[in-house]
Amino acid sequence: MLQSKVDDKSFDNKMKLKFLNKSQNEGFARISVAAFVATLDPTLEELTEIRTAVSEAVSNCIIHAYKEDEKGIIQVECWTDEDRNVIISVTDEGVGIENIEKAKEPLFTSKSDEERSGMGFTVMESFMDRLEVESVKGEGTRVTMIKKLDIVYEL
Amino acid sequence: MHVSFEITDEILIASLDGELDHHTAAQIREEIDKKIDNFHCKHLIFNFKKVSFMDSSGIGVVMGRYNKMKELGGRVMVSGCSSYIDRILNMSGIYTIAPKYNNVNEALKVVKNKVNEKVNTEGVQ
Questions:
Q1: Which domain holds residue A20?
Q2: Total number of domains constituting chain A
Q3: Exposure check for chain A: N or C terminus, fewer CB within 10 A?
Q4: Chain A residues with CB-CB distance to B under 8 A?
């Protein structure tokens, strides 16, 4: 599995999930991440954005990386710190992305016959502050997303 | 995710309830297509009012139904979108082919007017 470049020591809190490549786990993944991030008291909008981005990343593993092969393993990690930074990384050991730039283009899909919209990366990019994709053909893909939550002002 | 249906004058209204993702999209797609075929519907109105979560799989579902209804010579409309669902659908530019209305009744009024217009002009000829 591709190694994370995130240094655990610079974060207050971390969680890691590993689950089988089954589409019913999409809901599990996004709800788990949302529950973990909820301790930072994000706005409802921020939480929805995070849930959606996680759902997109996990769907990509299921549909593209493992081609619906349910034996694959998906790993979701999430880090948070006192400055309200949230880092989420979704890693698979699937086929890898041949052309990352092409895959990120809005409306580009290799699965148009399966009614995929080609908007997955676009949704992740617009709902999170930063998106990084690393991929090695035949080894897997790691998507890392960063979001800084708004500061809560106490009255 | 659950879908309930209403049919009026060849117009199918599909009201979605729950979370729409890649996992639930397959089942939703199948149920809607079956209703369209069985009841010979020509137009389709999506009602997203009770959708609590949606990712880009929702865009795919609307796109796919648009292709199907186009073949049947009909239209697809979407209604009842929250600002969050609106943001996702709008991102893809889907409204240019499947226009958005505030609610089902508004969409219904528009599609019924179009059907009547067509009947009238065809009647004149």
A1: 8-148
A2: 1
A3: C
A4: 23-24, 26-27, 30, 45, 48, 51-52, 55-56, 59, 62-63, 106-107, 114-117, 119-120, 122-123, 126
Domain locations in chain B?
Answer: 2-124
Whether domain B2-124 has CATH 3.30.750.24: yes
* Tokens encoding B90: 């709008």
Q: Is B98 exposed, middle or buried (0-12, 13-18, 19+ CB in 10 A)?
A: buried
Question: Residue A117 is nearest to which of B23, B53, B60, comparing CB atoms?
Answer: B60
How many of the other CB atoms lie within 10 Å of CB of A112? 14
List of chain A residues whose C-beta atoms are within 8 Å of the C-beta of residue B51: none
pLDDT at A93 over 60: yes
Q: CATH number, domain at A19? A: 3.30.565.10
Q: Is the pLDDT of residue B125 over 60?
A: no
pTM of the prediction? Answer: 0.92
Using the 8-state DSSP alphabet, how is residue B95 labeled?
Answer: G
